[in-house]
Amino acid sequence: MKKVAVLGTGTMAVGIAAGFISSGHGVILLGRNIERTQAAVPEIMGLAKGLSSDSGTSDISNEQIQTGTIEDWSDWSDVALVIETVTENLALKQTIFASLDKRVPTHIPIGSNSSGFPISQISQSLKTAQRMFNMHYFMPAHIVPLVEVVLGKASDPSMAKKVCELFEETGKKPVLVNQDIPGFLANRIQHALMREALALVNDGIATPEDVDTAVRYSFGFRYAAVGPMTQKEISGWEGMAIAAKEIYPSLSNNTEISPCLNKILKEKKFGIKSKEGFRTWSDEEASEMKRKYEKRLKAAFDVLQIEPD
Questions:
Q1: Based on the domain organization, do 28 and 159 belong to the same domain?
Q2: What is the domain-level CATH number for residue 143?
Q3: pLDDT per residue over 78-95, tens digit each?
Q4: Total count of domains within the chain
Q5: Helical ranges in the chain per DSSP H
Q6: Mean pLDDT of 7-20
Q7: From CA 43, how far away is CA 160, in angstroms rounded?
Q8: Do residue 241 and residue 94 come from a single domain?
Q9: What pLDDT, on the 0 to 100 scale, is given for residue 249?
């Protein structure tokens, strides 16, 4: 059984570990506190069993998961991959990677799930930086298929391709990003959309609710079937180019956070977690939205599996 070492015990670590277990891999869950690490196991196994039942399999065993601490673990036999998911603190990540650089056999690739810090910065000056990559999942990690495998300045492209193959074995959809630019690939596209969406809300052109409806039931709806590049291959690039000449000059090119977002942030309105963002959330509404969100994601995943691209 191939094993994957997952460093961390938070939401992303739990989802990543569950995904590997449900696909038949072993997981070594390593945290900074053994009690907290062991406490995460029931949630991981619950998610893994849910994924397995969704796919029509049920061969999940508690023997697939081991626990330990990041500082003390030394058994790397049968480990195919190491993924770090600790809090977004550059100094902490650099300390962990410096330790892994010395302790983990050099044939094992090491990744960081960080979306904010490029692997070139995390692995700076390390001897084995060539086997280090960003391996960026999206929340909820056990459902969303995409994993971005991002090359740093010293990363080995051939090893990155093997990492992608491993993710494919687990049912994920990896993309290889050839340079660790800010935001990598998906978040750059996502933030371009969010910048325009917030500008439209800020200028009173549309409400947050209407922005959601416009995206979900137009191009967002189509993107469940094909991506934006293929969609334009279908509809025709000439039409897109004509529209672009009219639209591009009026698009937001803000380089700072939109005033409407700054306002709610100053008021500590962070969304569901604080029970208020652009709208208020009762406990019941928050719970129901999270349930719908996960149910819809699973339905979208099923659609994506109808036939290969």
A1: yes
A2: 3.40.50.720
A3: 999 999 999 999 999 999
A4: 3
A5: 11-22, 34-39, 41-54, 90-103, 119-122, 157-169, 186-202, 208-216, 219-223, 228-235, 237-247, 259-266, 283-304
A6: 96
A7: 30
A8: no
A9: 97
Residue 55 has a pLDDT of: 64
- Reduced to 3 states (helix: H, G, I; strand: E, B; else coil), residue 171 is coil
Of 177, 200, 219, at which residue does a domain stop?
Answer: 177
User: Which of 91, 169, 167 is CA-nearest to residue 133?
Assistant: 167
Q: What average pLDDT does this structure show over 43-48?
A: 94
**Strand pairing report for 65-69 and 26-31:** parallel
Establish if 262 belongs to a structural domain: no
Do 132 and 155 contact (CB within 8 A), yes or no?
A: yes
Cα angle 73-79-84, degrees, rounded to a multiple of 5: 65
The answer to whether the CB of 248 falls within 8 A of the CB of 238 is: no
User: Does the pLDDT of residue 1 top 80, yes or no?
Assistant: no
Q: Which tokens sit at 75?
A: 């058994």
Query: Is residue 140 reached through a cis peptide bond, with omega within 30 degrees of 0 on the bond before it?
Result: yes
CA–CA distance, 264 with 286 (Å, rounded to integer): 18
3-state helix, strand and coil shares in percent for the chain, rounded to the nearest 5: 50, 15, 35
What angle do helix axes 208-216 and 186-202 make, rounded to 10 degrees? 140
Q: In which domain, by residue range, is 278 found?
A: 267-309
In a domain, residue 261? The reply is no
**Cβ atoms within 10 Å of 183's Cβ, excluding its own:** 17
3-state secondary structure (DSSP) of residue 81? strand
Its pTM stands at: 0.91
